[in-house]
Structures are given as structure tokens and as C-alpha cells.
């Protein structure tokens, strides 16, 4: 299959030091609001990259479920491949891509667990079927589909009269605490615009600069 000819021209609003926010979280929030209004599918989807105990990289799509000055929140099974990799090496990176806007955001930082209260609060907000699936699934382990379906049905019957299930101890949230956030805006002739924010010595102060495409 020949693919070298597949390309498109990029264009978008200008991204400069002058018109970008002083704080990258504010800039990200503005871009996410734009994406939510234009992208038809999963504007909160991010590619999360981690490394295993041998240093081999791994990645997958997860959904962003919260953002504030502290970081970027997502939820998963602590025993999953990503959970084990985070436990071993908490350094990670994430990338958002919004093709309709020709924009990307790359985030690098350290991951920490959310509090039990934060994880409980989000788990309780999930649809009941999603709660059951979180309990039923031994995420990242080899499993027969029929066995998994049967496990789900048994839990569904067990909790038939309950509107919500208790959060299992092996499931909860993480926060990606950024030390570097890059914003990429596609432009004509591949002269894309990139603004890099870097946190100064783990403080609340961010410096920003323009980097070449």
C-alpha cells in the first residue's frame, strides 16, 4: 500500500507568545473548550505514554476526567499494565490531537494517585454498567470473553437492587502533574507554530518560549 502521497494542508489561528495565555492550564482549557465545540468524537481523549520495568515504552488512549492547576486526571485499574508501569516509573507523557482544529498538546510530568475521596466521587458518578465492568474486568490479563461476560452478568444480578456499587480497591484515579506543556498549531507550508511552557524548579511559575516546527 502506497501512502507517501497522503497529505493535507494545515491552517489555523495564529499561536504566538503574545496571544497565548501566561498559564498553560488556562491555555489548555481554552483549547479544550474550542475542541469540545468542534470535534465530533472524544475531544477529551489523550494518548498516555508510560514505560515498563525494562524501559520499553507503552501507550494507549484514555479519557481526561478532570483538570486544574494541580494536573490532569484520569482513571483506570491499578493492576492494569499502565497501573503497574506507573507504580514502577511514575514519569509519563500525554498527547491530545484535535484534527479539526489542527492542534496538538503534549504534556510531560510525574504521575501521582488521586485521593480515595476523589476516586470515590468519580466512581459514584459513573453509569452502573461501567461500575460493574470496572469490577468484573481483570484489566490487561488474558481472559476468555465468555468468562468475562459471565462475570459481568453475575455481578449485574448480585447488585440488581442497588443503584450504585462500591468502588473496588484496585480501581481509581491518577493525576499527571506537568512540568512541561507544548502547544502545537498547524499552519500553511508546514511552518507550524509551537509554544513550550516549562515549570521553573517545580514551582507554580511557568516560563514560555517559541520553538521551531
From TrEMBL:
Please give the InterPro entries that the UniProt record associates with this protein.
Answer: Pyridox_Oxase (IPR000659), Pyridox_Oxase_N (IPR011576), Pyridoxamine_oxidase_dimer_C (IPR019576), Split_barrel_FMN-bd (IPR012349)
What Gene3D superfamilies is this protein classified in?
Electron Transport, Fmn-binding Protein, Chain A
Please cite one Gene Ontology biological process associated with this protein.
pyridoxine biosynthetic process
Q: How is the cofactor bound?
A: Binds 1 FMN per subunit.
**The entry's keywords:** Flavoprotein, FMN, Oxidoreductase, Pyridoxine biosynthesis
In this chain the Pyridoxine 5'-phosphate oxidase dimerisation C-terminal domain maps to: 171-213
Q: Pfam families of this UniProt entry?
A: PNP_phzG_C (PF10590), PNPOx_N (PF01243)
- Keyword flag Oxidoreductase: yes
Task: Look up the record and name the cofactor or cofactors this protein needs.
Answer: FMN
Q: Which reaction does it catalyse?
A: pyridoxamine 5'-phosphate + O2 + H2O = pyridoxal 5'-phosphate + H2O2 + NH4(+); pyridoxine 5'-phosphate + O2 = pyridoxal 5'-phosphate + H2O2
Its top-level enzyme class, in one word, is: oxidoreductase
- Residues in Pyridoxamine 5'-phosphate oxidase N-terminal domain copies: 42-147
This entry's Gene Ontology molecular function terms read: FMN binding; pyridoxamine phosphate oxidase activity
The pathway this protein participates in, as annotated, is: Cofactor metabolism; pyridoxal 5'-phosphate salvage; pyridoxal 5'-phosphate from pyridoxamine 5'-phosphate: step 1/1; Cofactor metabolism; pyridoxal 5'-phosphate salvage; pyridoxal 5'-phosphate from pyridoxine 5'-phosphate: step 1/1
Name the residues that bind FMN.
60-65, 75-76, 82, 104, 139-140, 184, 194
Entry EC number(s):
1.4.3.5
Oligomeric state and partners? Homodimer.
Q: Which NCBIfam families match?
A: pdxH (TIGR00558), PRK05679.1 (NF004231)
Q: What does this protein do?
A: Catalyzes the oxidation of either pyridoxine 5'-phosphate (PNP) or pyridoxamine 5'-phosphate (PMP) into pyridoxal 5'-phosphate (PLP).
Q: What is this protein called?
A: Pyridoxine/pyridoxamine 5'-phosphate oxidase
Organism per entry: Piscirickettsia salmonis
